[in-house]
Structures are given as C-alpha cells and as structure tokens.
C-alpha cells in the first residue's frame, strides 16, 4: 500500500531539539522531505545528517522566529528547494515562567514574538502556495497551558491560548481550500524547554513536578503529529489534548 506521506514536503520549526527534532525524524521515516528550522545551526546540521544517512532528504533553514521576516523566509526556502510545502509544523517556542508582578516584560515580549507572531508569520507565508495547490496541513503546537492557566504561567498561557484561538479561526478561513489545521496541546514533555526559565523558584517547582511523573517524550508528540497528517484528505483532526498518564492538571 502506498504511504500517503511518501514524497510530501514538511517544514518543522523548532527542530533543533525536543518535539521538533523527534517530529522531523518521524516524518522523514515516512518518506517526507523535511525542512528543519531553528536558530542553532550545529544542531540542525547534525539532524540533517541523521536524516540523510537514513536515506531521507533534509534542508537546514536557520531562522530566528522572533523575527517574522526570518520566519517567512524559512517557508520560502522550503518551497524553493522542494517545489512546494504540504505540511507546516509550527512548533518553535519558548516558555518563560515567572510571576506577573515581577516579570521581565522584555522576556515576555520575546516569548509572544516567537510563540505567536513567528507562528502567524510562517502560516501567512505558507498559505498562498497551499491555496494554489488546494492542499496543505498546518499543525500548531499549543499546550495544556493553552487550556488552563497556572501560577507563573500567565504569559505562557496567553501565548498558548492565543495559538488555540488562532488555529480555530484559521481553520474557518482555509478549510474550503482543502487546507487542514490541527492544534496539539501536550502536557509535560521531557525536553530542554524548562532549562530557559530564569525565575529560579518557578523553575525548581516545575522541575520537581515534572520529575514526579512519567513524562511524555518528544516521540510521543511526533507520533501523534504523524497520525494527524497521515489521515485521508476528508479527515481533519482539529485538536488533540494529551497528558502524561500521571499528570493531573
Ligand atoms: N516540553 C513541554 O512540556 C511542552 C508541553 C507543551 C507544549 N510544548 C511546546 O512544544 C514546543 C517545542 O518545545 P520543546 O518542549 O520541544 O522544547 P525545546 O527542546 O526547548 O525546543 C524548542 C525549539 O524551539 C526553537 N526555538 C526557540 N526559540 C526560537 C526562535 N527564536 N527562533 C527559532 N526557533 C526557536 C528551539 O531552537 P533554537 O534554540 O535552536 O532556536 C528548539 O528547537 C514549544 O512550542 C513548546 O511551547 C512543550
């Protein structure tokens, strides 16, 4: 039986570690030609080498998604190299947790730029080609923090609720052109994400909480993304909320 993903083209943002890296590998294993984007070129080069060694095709697109021009450029580089873009996985993100009262607004502005504006800019750049070919799938990575708020996570939740609202409105704008939109809302995943929390007490609290459970792995999210994008054309999985079995909130 033909794999419907074989020969497709995907751009995975935030592919230099964690969920994005696992997703790029999982898609490549299904015959998808993958463009991998992030800021750390050395990580992307190493990942591209793994994909190519396994018989796949990969394009490294170094881009800072806090800059919407660079986000759009990653899309255009993908189209230029592979001739089209079928699947956009908007995964690049940061999680700066700290209490509202003392938060560094510069840091939070940066988080809004990457998690929301970067995702919007990449989507905007991808739509004309997808509409022209009447084929496309946009997968946006939100979080359980896009469904509920917790102390320290006010601005992170603002970005992830933002991704959920954006995704639902986007779906209504594009579904008639056979473009599908999926939002994934993972609970705790074992990645580097928590390493960038500058507020030490908050970082310690979330690390202790995460280590108290069997965390999800990047591969768990990657497998879910592959499941969503490999559905037949008439099936649009709009939203998946997934937690570690041990995670309560
Ligand atoms: N881990 C969790 O518990 C969890 C739960 C729910 C949702 N998520 C979401 O999952 C996504 C991936 O996170 P992860 O857990 O896999 O963490 P991660 O290992 O830290 O990966 C984050 C990725 O985003 C990239 N990134 C960050 N800032 C960027 C920027 N300015 N421009 C381009 N790329 C940037 C990073 O690459 P560079 O540093 O090389 O740029 C990295 O590849 C995020 O959107 C996160 O909010 C994670």
Compact description:
The protein contains seven helices and seven strands.
Give the SSE layout.
Elements: E1 9-13, H1 18-29, E2 33-38, H2 41-53, E3 58-62, H3 68-82, E4 87-90, H4 105-133, E5 136-141, H5 154-174, E6 179-186, H6 200-211, H7 218-229, E7 239-242
Helix pairs in contact: 1-7, 3-4, 4-5
SS field, number of helical segments? 7
* Euclidean distance between termini CA atoms: 41 Å
What's the CATH first level?
A: Alpha Beta
Spans where pLDDT lies below 50 across 5 or more residues: none
Query: What is the CATH T-level topology?
Result: Rossmann fold
Mean pLDDT: 97
Name the bound molecules.
NADP nicotinamide-adenine-dinucleotide phosphate
* Total E-strand runs: 7
- Measured as a percent range, the helix fraction is 40-55%
CATH superfamily: NAD(P)-binding Rossmann-like Domain
Strand content: 15-25%
- The largest beta-sheet arranges its strands as 3-2-1-4-5-6-7
The main pleated sheet reads as: 7 strands, parallel
Give, in order, the helices and strands. EHEHEHEHEHEHHE
Second CATH tier, the architecture: 3-Layer(aba) Sandwich
